Amino acid sequence: MGKTAFSKALVAAALFGTATPFSKTLLDSLQENLLAGLLYLGAAILLLPRVVFLIRKGSVFFPRDAANRRRLVGAIFFGGMVGPVLLLVGLKQAMAASVSMWLNLETVATSILAYLIFREHIGGWTWLGNLGVLAAGLLLSATAGGWAGWIGIACVGGAAVAWGLDNNFTATIDGITPEMSTFWKGAFAGTANLALGLALQPTAPALNWLAALVLGGFAYGLSIVLYISSAQVIGATRSQMVFASAPFFGVLLSVTWLGERLRVAQLAAAGILLASLGLMFLGRHPHEHVHELHTHEHSHRHDDAHHDHLHEGLPAGAKHSHVHTHERVVHNHPHWPDLHHRHVH
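^ thats the sequence. predicted structure below, dont judge the formating
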């Protein structure tokens, strides 16, 4: 399951990597809050058919317990409202390439918050890989062809902290599926930002609104769903390290689409990033731990030693999602900081 989760985080990074250069273009005609609102509403619209399908299949539409509701509200506020607006303000002040590279600060913020606040275990190999991700981002920033202004850097740094909180909140939401939590984030944050944007700068719908909705559907909606699915398996820190490859997809797009020259520093940074991600696979974390009685909903399969309830006619390796209960169990095995392993060390 770990490799699948890494693949999902990588695809999420590729989708999100397209957002910064295209958003820079849209900011020429759209106010920051307005654009943020349209991006997240696009995410909600794209996911609506999937949400309706899941509801008909019996999935929970909104968290039933207070803990998951608080996590969802935190994700909506920090990830859907604060983070994107700060990013777009910074993007308006600085070059898109510089902002893209500095977004790797989100990786550092996610790791520190995961360790200090959300009790996520981070081993030595993961810390070393995290430093490598930061080094790759700094190397790429130094050759981005421009230097973001102080206002731009401050805004991007604030967005990184906001999304670091969002990443940790979403990684621990287990009362609803990733599609549901992303839909709520898109619907609430999108509506609030759109209303604020129209209040600050009244404007009529135009073709650029449609472009923003489409961009938000894929670069935010589909990307966030894949990221959450990954984070729930391998933890917020590791999934965010993979997600830190997003700027490199922007570089690749610049080379193939815009015809820009690929630099030696960019190749070196890509090598450092790949090596850093590889370090995560070296870490092993086995110890005896306790799973208390717990009821929740998430995507799972029955060949992972944690889901032993029965479904007649369903293969053990088939992924599915529904509300289920775990009985108390004590065992010992290597594990990631997923939804079932948030214990104290």
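Residues 79 and 163 are 5 Å apart (CA to CA).
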